[in-house]
Amino acid sequence: MSLSRAAIVDQLKEIVGADRVITDETVLKKNSIDRFRKFPDIHGIYTLPIPAAVVKLGSTEQVSRVLNFMNAHKINGVPRTGASATEGGLETVVENSVVLDGSAMNQIINIDIENMQATAQCGVPLEVLENALREKGYTTGHSPQSKPLAQMGGLVATRSIGHSPHSTAQSKIWSLVWKQYWLMAPSHALKTCHAARLARTFATSSSVTKVHFAISLK
Questions:
Q1: Beta strands 210-217; 177-184: pairing state
Q2: Among residues 44, 89, 171, 215, which is most buried (max CB within 10 A)?
Q3: Whose CA is closest to 176, among 190, 161, 163?
Q4: Which residues form the FAD-binding PCMH-type domain (predicted)?
Q5: Neighbour count for residue 68 (Cβ, 10 Å)
């Protein structure tokens, strides 16, 4: 039997702590959509089911525990970071969905100049990573118009192509990804891969709920 909305919230609080589980109605409504519905959002019109909660993920352990709980109880999950998407992919179309907000996982793990690679957590804004690289005389080469808002997890999950004149055929996100770190229920195991154009094979999040918690670019 499926869990009630209240039971979902209570168990999430036990898993990650009450301070990381948001149930404020205004926040839930905002998290039921993405920028595809920007005009209705401006006018406070929300017609989709609002999620049961927004969970502010803070570590890979929390990601694993939350995903396993949701998998066990068949709860729909919507991973989210910068929320700059305009395609409707972040909408909570299923009743009592849980939004998995990875924006708090926002550390640049490593910038390896010798091998020309950078690794960042899913919540690192592209602009922050870009600025850190520019200080060293480098760039990601990926430059969508959403750069101030877009974060690494969402860029990879949506296979961002970049819309600015500075984005070339060689600077699409799938051409830059060298390694991904992600979790998918019910396994607790860390999934790591590295290969050319990796994002073409593994990056999309449409078929199952998985969370990319760190990305390496080359």
A1: antiparallel
A2: 215
A3: 161
A4: 47-218
A5: 16
Which pair of tokens denotes residue 67?
Answer: 């995903």
* Percent of the chain surpassing pLDDT 90: 33
Q: Based on C-alpha coordinates, what's the Rg of the chain?
A: 17
Confidence band of 86 (pLDDT split at 50, 70, 90): low
Considering the segment(s) 5-101 as one domain, its CATH architecture is 2-Layer Sandwich (3.30)
According to the CATH classification, is domain 108-217 in 3.30.465.10? yes
State how far the alpha carbon of 151 is from the alpha carbons of 46, 49, 127, 159, 185, in Å: 25, 25, 8, 12, 23
Tell me, what DSSP letter sits at residue 215?
E
Encode pLDDT of 100-145 as tens digits. 999 999 999 889 898 888 888 889 998 999 899 999 998 887 777 7
Tell me, yes or no, if the two domains 5-101 and 108-217 fold the same way: no
Spatial distance between the Cα atoms of 202 and 37, rounded to a whole number of angstroms: 28
**Alpha carbons 52 and 97: distance in angstroms, whole number:** 6
> Which residues, in sequence order, are CB contacts of 153 under 8 Å at separation 6+?
79, 81, 102, 122, 123, 211, 212, 213, 215
Query: Contact, 22 vs 53, CB < 8 A?
Result: yes
Q: Quick check: 1 pLDDT over 90? A: no
Domain edges within the chain: 5-101, 108-217
Integer Cα distance of 147 and 133 in angstroms: 14
